[in-house]
Design brief:
Blueprint: E1 2-7, E2 13-22, E3 33-37, E4 46-50, E5 53-54, E6 58-61, E7 66-72, E8 81-89, E9 95-98, E10 121-124
Parallel strand pairs: 9-10
Antiparallel strand pairs: 1-7, 2-5, 2-6, 2-8, 3-4, 3-7
Length: 126
């Protein structure tokens, strides 16, 4: 089973909250798993791979405005699976700029930018 890409607007991030997780546990998640990628498909960077049982919230946040979620199970042991919610998290960096002129800078300027920043701007001048 594959969940289509979760998208948010440019300059935002996607936050996935898994509230209930019951997936067959195995070394390297080799049987059943929930994989979360930081992009539009499974060729994107893997953010996390889950294969255990918990009712504690597991929170995953994308680096950019896309997230791709894949649930896979094999032919033997099965559990309840997972239940989660997702939402757009505003802020971070990037976004839409619409003005005849303006200022653009990297996050935290003039201090150092953060690790794993993935920013994109759409600039429109009319």
């Amino acid at each position: 089973m594959t969940v289509d890409a979760l998208l948010s607007e440019l300059g935002s991030k996607v936050e996935l909250n898994v509230w209930d997780l019951d997936i067959e546990q195995a070394e390297n998640c080799s049987y059943d798993h929930l994989r979360v990628y930081g992009g539009e498909d499974a060729s994107s960077a893997l953010i996390t791979e889950l294969c255990h049982k918990t009712t504690d919230r597991v929170q995953v946040q994308s680096h950019g405005n896309n997230m791709f979620v894949v649930f896979n199970s094999d032919f033997t042991v099965s559990g309840k699976g997972f239940y989660g919610t997702y939402n757009q998290v505003r802020g971070g960096c990037g976004g839409r700029l619409m003005a005849p002129r303006g200022v653009i800078n990297s996050p935290n300027w003039p201090a150092n930018y953060d690790h794993d920043d993935d920013c994109g701007w759409l600039i429109s001048v009319d």
